[in-house]
Design a protein that fits this description.
Blueprint (H helix, E strand, L loop, with lengths): L5 H23 L6 H8 L3 H7 L3 H25 L4 H16 L4 H9 L1 H27 L8 H16 L2 H6 L3 H16 L3
Helix pairs in contact: 1-4, 1-6, 4-5, 4-7, 5-7, 5-10, 7-8, 8-10
GO molecular function: DNA-binding transcription factor activity; transcription cis-regulatory region binding
Protein name: TetR family transcriptional regulator
InterPro entries: Homeodomain-like_sf, HTH-type_TetR-like_transc_reg, HTH_TetR, Tet_transcr_reg_TetR-rel_C_sf
Length: 195
């Protein structure tokens, strides 16, 4: 058996560092961290971090992008495991909640205050809202949901998801983003279910 190539080892190390970075950012946020702090916490050199991204801002944005890419794969896997439309909608929103659950309020606050990260979150929120609209449309077409205007239901979900992303729900209700997605799932499913 041959040893992994240096390129493959380097890619694996970069992947491990990104995963550790995501865990750090989710737990603590990032506004207060310097590159020296990040390097010390990840037990690597600043040079290694610069190999991942050219600046702290680029590193944070890349970590946020990777966080949402990883989350999307797992959310879609949860949806694929369900057959019934109501189960698929519930699985989607609950999987989103599960993916956001490890994130601290500091992470969400820092993300909202940092335009490159806020843009990534907003883009992912828009994509998630479109996906929920598709799932609602499938449920209405299958007769599993009441005959509601799909565009209205999708727009209502999108508006709520944007309010979650922009921290308005947290400010108005005290709910963490993950809790808000759980509440949205319950409200949406009970409002769509046939009596």
């Amino acid at each position: 058996m041959t040893a992994p190539s240096p390129t493959r080892r380097g890619a694996a190390r970069h992947s491990e560092l990104f995963d550790a970075l995501i865990d750090l950012l989710l737990a603590e946020g990032f506004a207060h961290l310097t590159l020296d702090d990040v390097a010390a916490r990840l037990r690597c050199s600043k040079r290694t971090l610069y190999a991942l991204a050219g600046s702290k801002e680029q590193l944070v944005r890349a970590a946020v992008v990777r966080f949402f890419e990883r989350a999307t794969v797992r959310v879609e896997a949860a949806v694929a495991a369900c057959a019934a439309p109501a189960d698929r909608v519930a699985a989607y929103l609950r999987a989103v909640a599960a993916e956001l659950a490890p994130a601290s309020a500091g992470f969400f606050d820092d993300m909202a205050a940092f335009p490159p990260a806020a843009e990534v979150y907003a883009r992912n929120t828009e994509a998630a809202a479109r996906r929920v609209g598709e799932l609602i449309g499938e449920g209405v077409a299958a007769g599993d949901f009441r005959d509601v205007p799909v565009s209205f239901a999708a727009e209502t979900v999108a508006t709520t998801m944007v309010a979650i992303q922009q921290r308005r729900i947290a400010g108005a209700t005290g709910l963490a983003d993950a809790e808000a997605y759980e509440a949205l799932a319950a409200l949406l499913l009970h409002g769509l279910a046939r009596p």
